[in-house]
């Protein structure tokens, strides 16, 4: 009898998904897409205004404290991700989703009131941004991984990343619209609230958070399917399913693959954080751009890269079906490597030097047509003239400026395009592979560690730039980055055959792509 029962249990139990369940499952996934979009908008909508608002509310704050405020978001997210992951493994996912979003709403409201205290305002802003990061520790991708089959997973992860990218693009656009309100704006004394170009964006973000919570309660439902798309019950599920399908979770997770993917994800986020952070100082040093010009031109470049990323996310959904996620991840890392390799100084022309004692615009500025050489020649194009006493060029305090060749503008733009192509590929493929390696096991804690590793990378990236680039220059900084990417490629080669889906590893499904 035991032998017969064992054979019966070994037979696959196909629980056909009803049309109603399918529609409900995908409505919930679309709510997660929207949650990711709104979370990204809430983060990026204030990034451009943090520094001027900080200077306004607390004159004692300096640029180094701004670094802590920017890093506090990632620190909060790094702390919260494993905690929310553990919570989502043992309780319905709606609970951590609602609580984390509510924390973000409260933190945004706190940010709008940081001007009220009569002292230590910068610390209130630091607390507010840390709490926003804590609220961002929600596990959207963990739910999507558990609610999709293997064949749906790559497309769903790509859509999630695309929503995140669009949110990052539109956030600064909303911020620009709110600048029309001005610095003074309107004051509601009975609420001690100032509605101005600094506070209105975060209050708008809080409103989006409230709408998000309402939609989670109204539409979101818990759904779990296995790697083959068959529904089953778990502690998170609202709908009906089969408890017997839990047999598909039998087997251990390949922890070597898990650790390797965490390391690869750290490298991917680290190099992109370096790229984001270094854009403004690099262009100011190399091309004698003013602060305003650097912010304006790099803002345009990052917006174009954001649009490029969305297109890439859409393309990889189709491409992965033909080549497989591992091959695309490998190609993405190679593209990033080439992007940073191009940034190495190759020419002989030195950048313009910014002498400390010079307080006017007598420093000759290199025209963009000269910067583009030796790649191609363009008609003479003049940047907007600088009528202030702001010194421009590579500061003489950075000793490498005196002997390191400049990076031509064509190198910089080419590098931007390549990194903008390689990063989204690596990002979505690492998430997809990670979720497939974990399989039908509860992914909350594991996804929490992946998010935490990404947050750590975003903290250490700016520190790396401030130390290596400032003291040793771009040649050392980008050479080290190239070395890190090469090491990650070697790691990928070592674990390449282990980066397979949980169900494939245990022979429950066949791997279609290599």
UniProtKB/TrEMBL annotation:
GO CC annotation, single: endomembrane system
Membrane topology per record: Multi-pass membrane protein
Coiled coil: none
CDD domains the record matches: MFS_MFSD8
Gene3D superfamilies, A to Z: MFS general substrate transporter like domains
Protein's cellular compartments: Endomembrane system
Xref: SUPFAM superfamilies: MFS general substrate transporter
Bilayer-crossing regions: 30-53, 65-85, 97-116, 198-220, 256-275, 295-316, 328-347, 412-434, 446-470, 476-496
InterPro entries (alphabetical): MFS, MFS_dom, MFS_Domain-Containing_Protein, MFS_trans_sf
Domain Major facilitator superfamily (MFS) profile: 28-500
Annotated keywords: Membrane, Transmembrane, Transmembrane helix, Transport
MF terms in GO: transmembrane transporter activity
Keyword Lipid metabolism attached: no
Protein's UniProt keywords contain Signal: no
PANTHER family per record: INNER MEMBRANE TRANSPORT PROTEIN YAJR, MAJOR FACILITATOR SUPERFAMILY DOMAIN-CONTAINING PROTEIN 8
Name of the protein described by the UniProt record: Major facilitator superfamily (MFS) profile domain-containing protein
């Amino acid at each position: 009898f035991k032998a017969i029962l064992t054979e019966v249990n070994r037979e696959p139990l196909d629980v056909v998904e009803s049309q109603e369940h399918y529609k409900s499952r995908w409505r919930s996934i679309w709510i997660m897409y929207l949650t990711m979009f709104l979370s990204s908008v809430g983060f990026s909508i204030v990034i451009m205004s943090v520094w001027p608002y900080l200077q306004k509310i607390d004159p004692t704050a300096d640029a180094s404290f701004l670094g802590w405020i920017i890093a506090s978001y990632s620190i909060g997210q790094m702390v919260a991700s494993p905690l929310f992951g553990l919570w989502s493994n043992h309780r319905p996912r709606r609970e951590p989703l609602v609580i984390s979003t509510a924390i973000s709403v409260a933190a945004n409201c706190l940010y709008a009131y940081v001007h009220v205290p009569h002292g230590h305002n910068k610390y209130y802003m630091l607390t507010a941004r840390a709490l926003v990061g804590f609220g961002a520790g929600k596990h959207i991708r963990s739910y999507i991984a558990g609610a999709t089959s293997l064949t749906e997973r790559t497309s769903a992860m790509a859509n999630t990343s695309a929503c995140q990218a669009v949110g990052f693009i539109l956030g600064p656009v909303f911020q620009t619209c709110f600048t029309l309100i001005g610095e003074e704006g309107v004051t509601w004394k009975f609420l001690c609230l100032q509605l101005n170009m600094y506070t209105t964006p975060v209050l708008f973000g809080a409103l989006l958070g409230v709408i998000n919570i309402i939609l989670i309660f109204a539409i979101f439902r818990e759904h779990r399917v296995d790697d083959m798309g068959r529904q089953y019950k778990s502690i998170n599920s609202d709908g009906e399913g089969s408890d017997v399908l839990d047999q598909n979770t039998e087997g251990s997770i390949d922890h070597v693959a898990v650790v390797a993917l965490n390391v690869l994800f750290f490298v991917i986020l680290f190099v992109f954080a370096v790229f984001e952070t270094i854009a403004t100082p690099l262009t100011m040093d190399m091309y004698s751009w003013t602060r305003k010009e650097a912010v304006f031109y790099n803002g345009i470049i990052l917006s174009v890269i954001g649009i490029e990323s969305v297109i890439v996310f859409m393309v990889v959904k189709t491409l992965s079906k033909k080549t497989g996620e591992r091959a695309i991840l490998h190609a993405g890392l190679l593209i990033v490597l080439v992007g940073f390799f191009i940034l190495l100084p190759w020419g002989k022309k030195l950048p313009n030097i910014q002498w400390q004692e010079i307080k006017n615009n007598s420093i000759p500025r290199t025209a963009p047509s000269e910067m583009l050489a030796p790649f191609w020649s363009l008609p003479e194009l003049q940047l907007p003239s600088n009528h202030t006493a702001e010194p421009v060029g590579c500061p003489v305090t950075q000793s490498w400026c005196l002997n390191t060749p400049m990076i031509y503008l064509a190198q910089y733009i080419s590098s931007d395009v390549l990194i903008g192509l390689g990063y989204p590929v690596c990002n979505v493929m690492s998430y997809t592979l990670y979720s497939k390696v974990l399989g039908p096991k509860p992914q909350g804690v594991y996804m929490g560690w992946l998010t935490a590793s990404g947050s750590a990378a975003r903290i250490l990236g700016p520190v790396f730039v401030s130390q290596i680039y400032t003291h040793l220059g771009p040649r050392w900084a980008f050479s080290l980055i190239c070395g890190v990417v090469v090491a990650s490629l070697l790691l990928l080669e070592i674990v390449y055959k282990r980066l397979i889906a949980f169900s494939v590893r245990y022979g429950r499904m066949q791997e279609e792509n290599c």
